[in-house]
Amino acid sequence: MLRVAGACAMLLGVPAGRLADTTVPPRLGAALSYLLLAATEVCILLVDSYAALVGVLVAAAGFQMTAATMRQTIVARLGGPRASVFRAKVTARANLAMMVGMAASGLVIAAGSATAYRAAIVVCCVLTAGQGLLFLALPVALPVGLAAPAAKDSAPAPDGPGVEAGRAGSRWEALTDLPYLSICLIYATLVLLETVVTVALPLWITQRTAGPGWLVAVFGVANTLSIACLLTRTARRVNTPRKAGRAMAVGGVFAGVFCLLTALSSGRALLPAVIVLVIALLASIVAELLTVSAEMELTMTLAPEHAKGQYLGLSQTALTAATTVGPSVVTLACLSWGRPGWVLLGALLALAGLATPAVAAWAERTRPTPP
Known about the structure:
Elements: H1 2-10, H2 13-22, H3 26-43, H4 50-79, H5 83-111, H6 114-135, H7 144-147, H8 178-190, H9 192-208, H10 214-237, H11 241-264, H12 270-301, H13 308-336, H14 339-365
Helix pairs in contact: 1-4, 1-13, 2-4, 2-13, 3-4, 3-6, 4-5, 4-13, 5-10, 5-12, 8-12, 8-13, 8-14, 9-13, 10-12, 11-12, 11-14, 13-14
């Protein structure tokens, strides 16, 4: 059911970005998307059939995708030349908010009553609507595509898919930009690491190792806090596409190390298993910090100014695709196949990361030359 919703939402990323570039001011688009998302969430309390629930979830996923694309376009506009660092700050604070949400969710689950669940849904709807209204307080700015008239004599860059800002871009320019598509594909592969940490690792610890169950909660808090506290600092250092390519390569290798160590934690006594798992967790934190910072730099910097929304919508589509199929992939690889699956997944992540420097250089070469 959630996979169907995610698959449908993927179709809206690039069109929503196109709207942000040419027609709808992003702050209004984000506000409207969040308000509609809040209204859709309320419907969860009213549905009484499986088909109706699927419809509600599909609509909610669509509004969430549109809101995320509009939000990233706003971040790109407000962040200016260092949009990736600004986005890192936003993401870091979102991680802290997520910790609060996880704690609140735990209390709701502990209560275990229908009333508590309904109250939690209502609170989420109110917070979502409030988030939408906050976007209306942002500075008013026209999309880049409307900010200036197109120049009749503008010409495309000689050796790449990008065009000068005055042309306003082809209708689906992002979908024909092979270097940018490749970067999105690489990051969609590396995003599997987050799914491994949140889905496969807890099950592996409790089912296949001698590690205590409470270790799962400790690891979750440590991971979230580390990203919240260190992501902005890391993003400041990953400040060019070339550095981002190298960071993604190193992050992919650390992701592979994490998978290998996690596989080796099975079948060991309590203390050795915990030591190996702690080292694996540290490797996963380094990998996530580097890959997330690199993705922010690459997707923000390499997206042409006149089509920021369209390109960032494509990156959101890739992210949604990874999170939609990720749980099934990592469950099959890590839990059904066991140690060989962990090793194969680690090799995939490492190879994806190591391919990034060449792809980033290719993408940088195909960007239009500033006049």
